[in-house]
Design goal:
Blueprint lengths: L5 E6 L2 E6 L10 H15 L6 E6 L10 H7 L6 H24 L4 E5 L2 E3 L1 H7 L3 E5 L3 E3 L13 H4 L6 H10 L2 E3 H6 L5 E3 L2 H16 L3 H14 L4 H15 L3 H12 L10
Parallel strand pairs: 2-3, 3-4, 4-6, 5-7, 6-9
Antiparallel strand pairs: 1-2, 7-8
Length: about 270
């Protein structure tokens, strides 16, 4: 597959995923997207993983799409029809890699430092919680390279910040600093620098991992299902979820822990 673009470490029930191409500002190429999808699908099916932290190495979280790779990947051919059909398949495959982050069973916390550009915004929008360093900034930069953002930003960002601000960012390509991102509710916390952001992200991931995994997974599933749907649809979904899953050992573990004054111990999901 080529050099590693992503590395993963484990600390108990928390997995730490790092973008690991710092010499290229973690630019996203074909190997990156392949490894991103594989990593999050694997972690999503790992019954022992209860929370995931995503971060980036180097000066910036990510410079976004590797334009050198993209120029070759999407270069037109002599057969416009076949070229368009292949291009559609390629875009859907890239979307699937980013979607794997949102679809991973455990909640995903992301720690962002420096620049988070283009495809990086797609990526962090697919996460559940966002922590930013004080120097972090976000840019929906696709419009500056004549691309319509197509990996989820236009679909997810308006559910995370006011719609008018999402449109402004996407149509102007201007930078949004961490302070503004926090003001709109896009980031949950601001930390001093990259290391502090990662520490804060690990703290959040640890808090989630200490909770009932059944409740955490159900909460994420219900929030994602309910986005953009009528309230009644969301409530019907969570009613079916609880009807199917409330008979689990986590509630007994919590009641036992309260009675004994000890932290609850939860079984892995599978």
């Amino acid at each position: 597959m080529g050099s590693e673009r992503i590395i993963t470490a484990r600390d108990g029930a928390v997995a730490h995923v790092e973008l690991a191409r710092p010499d290229k500002l973690n630019a996203m190429d074909g190997d990156f997207f392949a490894q991103l999808g594989e990593t999050f699908r694997a972690l999503g099916s790992d019954s022992a993983v209860r929370a995931i932290l995503l971060s980036g190495q180097g000066r910036h979280f990510t410079a976004g799409l590797d334009l050198g790779w993209a120029a070759g990947q999407f270069a037109p051919s002599k057969d416009p029809g076949r070229w368009s059909e292949r291009q559609h398949r390629d875009i859907v495959a890239l979307q699937a890699a980013v979607n794997a982050v949102e679809e991973a069973r455990p909640p995903v916390v992301v720690a962002i430092h420096g620049g988070c550009i283009g495809g990086g915004v797609d990526l962090v929008c697919a996460c559940d919680l966002r922590v930013a360093s004080a120097d972090a900034w976000f840019q929906v930069a696709e419009i500056d390279v004549a691309i319509t953002a197509d990996l989820g930003t236009l679909q997810r960002l308006p559910h995370l910040i006011p719609g008018g601000i999402a449109r402004e960012l996407a149509l102007t390509g201007r930078k949004m600093a961490a302070e503004e991102a926090a003001r709109w509710g896009f980031v949950n916390r601001i930390a001093g620098d990259r290391d502090a952001a990662i520490a804060a992200g690990l703290e959040l991931a640890g808090m989630i991992a200490a909770k009932s995994p059944m409740a955490a997974v159900g909460t994420k599933a219900s929030l994602n299902h309910s986005r953009g749907r009528p309230i009644a649809d969301g409530m019907a979904h969570v009613a079916m979820w609880n009807a199917a899953t409330l008979a689990n050992g986590d509630m007994h573990a919590i009641s036992t822990a309260k009675a004994t004054g000890t932290p609850p111990g939860f079984a892995d999901l599978d």
